[in-house]
Predict the 3D structure of the following.
Amino acid sequence: MTMVEPAVPATGKAGELQTRVIVGALLIGAALAAGYFGGVALWLLVILMALGIMSEWARLTGRQDNRLLSMYALSVPLAIMSPWAAGPSFLALGLIFGSAMFVAVFDRSLKLAAGVIYAGLPALAILYLRDIEDGILVMLWTLALVWATDIGAYFSGRTIGGPKLAPTFSPNKTWAGLIGGVVLTAAVSYMLHLYWGLPLYLVLLSLPLAVLAQMGDLFESWLKRKAGVKDSGTIFPGHGGVMDRLDGLIPVAPVVALVMLVNSLLALA
């Protein structure tokens, strides 16, 4: 008897790509809207982001038993970051590390405590960047450089291919992808400089930050490889989890916030 192979659904890879594009556009739209309005809208989005990262971190590091504890502990500095409280302040920064110490003692492990810092610092950084002078522009640039790095790396990596960047735990990443991501990020940053007045030093800073975004991606790939999972979560169809979407922003946002803080202090000196 002849076996007839089932037809490949028309919604195969094309359908997956369509889903990925639609969900990605919705996520970008939500981020831009919250960034534009700032205040409570951005704070609420940041809370969801940070708690999602914390939950997935606990899963990836095998500390699921105390996942809720870590999320409750992180909620303390997140609450202080509220527009009705201290906001993105040094108090919130101190509480992030204080919450991490509490989790470390209770969990008897540094793994889960590291997640509090990993989730808390970018949350604080994003809120801080929105509050500074020209905060909308700086925050838009921070988001745009991460998105541009991802897009440039994806398309140049698939088109050019070549030597792998980290074949041991991220076999799809290539050096061509890294270079493509850096080039596109530089182009986007320069456009923001030309048409929206982004300072030139931030355009130059976008080059190492694009590399840092890729390192954040590789770090998450290493975590997933150790955990034996493909994605950090399943909350976003076609995209995976919160960490899958924010792995580049997580290290970049705190560095940008630190640069802007130092710049403001030097301006006062």
